[in-house]
Design goal:
The structure is a homodimer. A six-stranded parallel beta sheet of chain A has the order 2-1-3-4-5-13, sandwiched between helices. Chain A has a six-stranded mixed beta sheet with strand order 7-6-10-11-12-14, sandwiched between helices. By secondary structure, the first copy, chain A, is α/β, with parallel strands linked by helices. Chain A is built from eleven helices and 14 strands. Chain A has helices at residues 9-16, 20-27, 34-47, 53-60, 76-91, 105-117, 158-171, 192-204, 220-228, 245-257, 291-304; strands spanning 65-70, 95-100, 122-125, 140-143, 153-156, 176-183, 207-214, 230-231, 234-235, 239-242, 267-272, 286-288, 311-314, 317-319. The longest helix of chain A is centred in the first third of the chain and has 16 residues, at 76-91.
C-alpha cells in the first residue's frame, strides 16, 4: 500500500487477491460473483478504502449532486421545502447543493452558471429571476414557476386553493370579500390563487375587491387600503383571503390594532399551512400546501427524466386555524 | 472541436491560438500575460467552455464544497444558521452540501462517512450524535458541540447568556426563579446556559429550581411540574428562564391556559432570538444569539485552517419581547 496516502483500488485488489477489474465492478455496482464481492468488500473495509467520487464523476458523468436554488431559508415554507427536498434526494442516494439567492437575480444567474460548471446532475429551483440563464445540458425542475414546456413545474393546486378559500369564506357567511396578494416580477403559478378565488366570487355573485403589491415591498399599502375602508370602527369587508399566511398574520395584527376582532368581525384565510414551530399550531386558517409530496414529486421527476407533463399540480386542503368561525 | 460534446481546454487553446498550458494557467488563476488572459477568456466565452471542476477537484485536491450537517430546517434557528452559513460559504467561493440528519445518529454517521468519500473540503456540523465517526482527513468545525481540542467549536456565549437572563429577571423584581431546559444525549455547550443562570441566583441569594428534560421528548413534564406549583391560581415562581424560545412560548401558552398572566404574574425569558417570520417580532423576551457572526466565524475558522482556539464563544444580548415587564 502506498504509504501516507489514502488506499486506492489497486491496494484493495492486492489485499483481496483479485483483479483490479473485479474491484471496479464491485464499486460501480456491476454484476460480479458473490464470493468476489465479499472479498472486495472485506478488503475495502480493512484498508478504510473510500470511493473517489470525483474520479467516478468523470467516468460515469454522474455526480449524484442536485442543486437546490432557494431564495432564503428565513421563510418557513422555503425552509420546510428545502428540508423535504434534501431528505428526498438523500433517500434516492443524491446530495443537495444548497444555493441561497436572497431574491437577487444576479445571484440566481450565478447559481445556474455555477451549477453547469460543476457538473451537477440537475437543479430544483424556486426562482423569481426574469432570466436565470438556463443551461440546456442540466435538467431543471421548478417549483411554482413555469419556464417552458420543456421544464417541469411542480406546484400546489393554486387555482383550486383559491376557489376553496372563497367557497369557505362564503359558506361561513361572508358577503363582501377582499383578496390581498403579493406578485413577483415574473409570472408565477401562485397567481392562480387569485384567479380561482375570483371565479368563485363571480359564480356565487358575491362582491369582492382585490389588491396586489409587488413582492418584497412593505405591506403598508394594504394597511392604508384597510384604513380607508373602516367606518365607525367597522371594516367594509367581512372576509379576507391572503395569498400567504404571512400576509394574513400581518393584516390580522393590523386590524386588531384598530379594534377589529378576528374572526368575530372579519374572517381571514391565508395560504401555505406551515405549522408554527413555537406553538405547534397553524398561524391562521389556511390552505395547506402538500410540501412533502411536492418535494418527493420534484425529485422523482428530476431523476427519472422521463417525459413529464410540464405542469404538475398537487392537491391542497383547507385547515381552520382560529381566524375563521369554524 | 470534438462534435456533439462539450468544448475542452484543447478546443479553447486552438480557438485562442495559444498553448494548452496557457489555457490551464488562466483557468487555474495562475499568473499569465494580460493579452493571453483576454484571448483565452474570449475563446472560452465563444465556445461556451465550462470548467470541469471534477477534473480540477482531482488535480488540486480541492472541491470547494463544504458539508453542512444539520438536524432539521423546521427549527427557525437551524434554518437561519444554515441560510447564513450557505451565504458565507458562497461569499468565500465555496458551495454548501446540505445534509439533514433529522436527529438520527445513524444518518449523522452516514453523513460523515459520505463526506469523506466525496472529498469535500470540510464539514460544519450541528450534531448530537454520540459518535459521528469523525474522519481525520476532513476538517470539521462544530456549532454548540465540543468534540475535542482539535475540533474548533463555535457557540454563542451560553454562560454569559444564562447569567444575563437571571440578572434581568432579578432586576425586574423576581424573587423565586425557575429554569427549564432540554438536554441532548451528549454534553453540549448549550448546558452552560443553566450554569450561568444558577451562578447569578446563588451570588444574589435568590431562590431557584431547575428542571431538565431529554431533548425531543414532550414538554408534558414541564406542564405537570407547573400544575403542582399552582395554588389558588397563583404560580409559586415569578420568573422563568427557558433554554430555548420554543419552550418559553409553549410554557407561556400553558400558563395562560391556567389563567396566569404573562408578564403581569410571571415573567419569562427564552434563548435564541429569532425574529418571527409572520409577525416580525421576537416571540418572547430572549437572549439573542449572533447567528450571522457565528456562521461567518465558523466558515473562516474552517477555511483558514490556522491554529484556532478549540472554543470560540460570541457575545449575546438581551431583547425584551413582551414576556417581561420592561
Amino acid at each position: 500500500m502506498n504509504s501516507g496516502n489514502a488506499p486506492t483500488m489497486k491496494d484493495v485488489a492486492r489485499e483481496a487477491g483479485v483483479a483490479l477489474g473485479t474491484v471496479s465492478k464491485v464499486i460501480n455496482g456491476k454484476p460480479v460473483g458473490e464470493a468476489y464481492r465479499k472479498k472486495v468488500e472485506a478488503a475495502a473495509k480493512k484498508l478504510g478504502y473510500q470511493v473517489n467520487s470525483y474520479a467516478r464523476g468523470l467516468k460515469t458523468n454522474k455526480t449524484y449532486c442536485v442543486a437546490l436554488v432557494m431564495p432564503s431559508l428565513k421563510n418557513p415554507f422555503f425552509a420546510e421545502l428545502t428540508n423535504a427536498l434534501s431528505r428526498s434526494l438523500a433517500a434516492h442516494g443524491y446530495r443537495s447543493v444548497l444555493m441561497i439567492t436572497n431574491f437577487d437575480s444576479d445571484i440566481e444567474k450565478k447559481c445556474f452558471s455555477l451549477a453547469a460548471q460543476h457538473k451537477i446532475d440537475g437543479i430544483i429551483a424556486l426562482t423569481y429571476c426574469p432570466d436565470p440563464g438556463m443551461v440546456e445540458s442540466v435538467p431543471v425542475v421548478t417549483i411554482d414557476r413555469h419556464f417552458s414546456s420543456e421544464t417541469p413545474c411542480i406546484s400546489s393546486d393554486n387555482y383550486e386553493g383559491g376557489k376553496m378559500a372563497a367557497s369557505k369564506l362564503i359558506s361561513l357567511g361572508c358577503k363582501n370579500l377582499l383578496f390581498f396578494s403579493t406578485k413577483t416580477e415574473v409570472y408565477s403559478e401562485v397567481e392562480k390563487r387569485g384567479l380561482g378565488f375570483q371565479e368563485v366570487c363571480r359564480t356565487e355573485g358575491v362582491a369582492f375587491q382585490t389588491l396586489d403589491l409587488k413582492s418584497g415591498d412593505s405591506e403598508v399599502p394594504f394597511y392604508r387600503f384597510l384604513e380607508q375602508h373602516i367606518r365607525d370602527g367597522v371594516l367594509e369587508f367581512d372576509g379576507i383571503f391572503c395569498n400567504s399566511d404571512r400576509i394574513a398574520v400581518r393584516v390580522q395584527k393590523f386590524l386588531e390594532s384598530k379594534g377589529i376582532r378576528i374572526p368575530e368581525d372579519v374572517q381571514m384565510i391565508g395560504y401555505d399551512g406551515i405549522v408554527d414551530f413555537y406553538t405547534c399550531q397553524p398561524v391562521c386558517s389556511t390552505i395547506v400546501q402538500p410540501i412533502a409530496r411536492m418535494a418527493e414529486t420534484a425529485v422523482q421527476v428530476l431523476l427519472n427524466q422521463t417525459e413529464s407533463p410540464s405542469n404538475i399540480t398537487l392537491p391542497v386542503y383547507y385547515l381552520p386555524g382560529g381566524t375563521t368561525r369554524d
